[in-house]
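So, who can interpret the following?
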Amino acid sequence: MPQDRVQEGPREARIVARSDVVVVGGGPAGFAAAVAAARSGVSVTLVERYPYLGGLASGGMVLVLDDMANGPEISVRGICMEMIDRLARLGLAVYPPEQDRGQDLVKWRKWSRWGAFDFMSHSKPHPIVFAAAFDPDGWKRVSDELVRECGINLRLHSWFSSAIVRDGRIEGVICETKAGREAILGDVIIDATGDLDVAAAAGAPHVKDSYIVTTVFRLGGVDTDEAERVQFEQPEAFLALDKQAKKLIGGSWDYWWLKTPLPGIVWCNCPHMPGLDGTKVEDLTRAEFDGRARIHALVDFVRDKMPGFRNCYIVDVAPQTGIRQTRLLDGEYVVTKDDVIKRVHFADSIARGRDYYTPYRALLPRNVEQLLVVGRHYSATPQAQKISREIPPCMAMGQAAGIAAAIALNSGKIVRKVDVKRVQRIVRDQGGDPGDVPAQNALLVEAQS
């Protein structure tokens, strides 16, 4: 035995659940997959390591749903839009009405601090588009309601450990829990872990890369009206202070704070920390430790210097580290940066983002049967993933995968052989947009598999 290894004896796991579909990961993509599959009439077990659903939308506090509008057109609907509608009825989601969308300074001043703008646009001010700011605990609440309504077998506090694979076909997963090792068996497994944990363990080819890591936080006691007044009426003074704040936090988007549906509470999607590996304990520990130090330094500064922040305080730091990229599937088709930028349309498109398309083949691992992959670890190059990994398109992927799993089970086919046209029709029946009809600005060239 090498000196840095220990030998484990034979182990076993108690079977605690069997269902048609097992979804590993209760973040936005996995949640959408579970709901779509259950609504298609199959039994579903949803496994999540944290004590809540929502993943980076709730625990990671990524509190704007964007990348879902192609100019005036809303391109992501389905379960994602259902979540927004339910949150809005509770007063826990805010988005610009149709008459407030477009490009002018009045609309920009009213909506930019909600994050409701086309961040890919090169024109200034950025056009205001459909995007929704929401509350993270509201997301948990609505997720719980939908899981209950759909009859999904939910297992929280269950940390994925290994895949059960026999003759190249995945048959279930093993999770570590307080009760010991537990096995959950299923006919179709959907990997929605965000880090490709299941597919990698099952032997699916993949690549690995990294992007910025963030310890997201919220501040309370902020006078947002005063802060915005200074931004727009005293721009030189504002920019000087804002530059100092960004230097202290050590990296952020252009707007390091945005408004939330809760009055006086702002969302801070920073600090940005590059060069860290989201699969390494040492790097994750460093991100938490360094991130909190930067947050406290920033708060001390803005309390003293920035208008509107005199009485601010830390409400919370996200319980989940903001990981954007780790393992990526090397699947049946690998989406490229050119595919995203040039808006290449695929005949087997099953999901849309802002103005790009995701083919069903990008959810299919090579070498492993009955496994689907949805979310930010789908089959794409690292460069493509950076611009196609937002929550709404990941939810669209999940919805399509849940439907595909149900079709496979009901037709006696493996998921690799599912009729994609049928998936597209049912996605539309469930209120989604699979991207089967290309937008006017799409490149009508079918990429080769």
Q: What stands out?
A: The chain is about 30% helix and 20% strand. The mean pLDDT is 96. The first strand starts at residue 14 and ends at 24. Residues 404 and 423 are 6 Å apart (CA to CA).
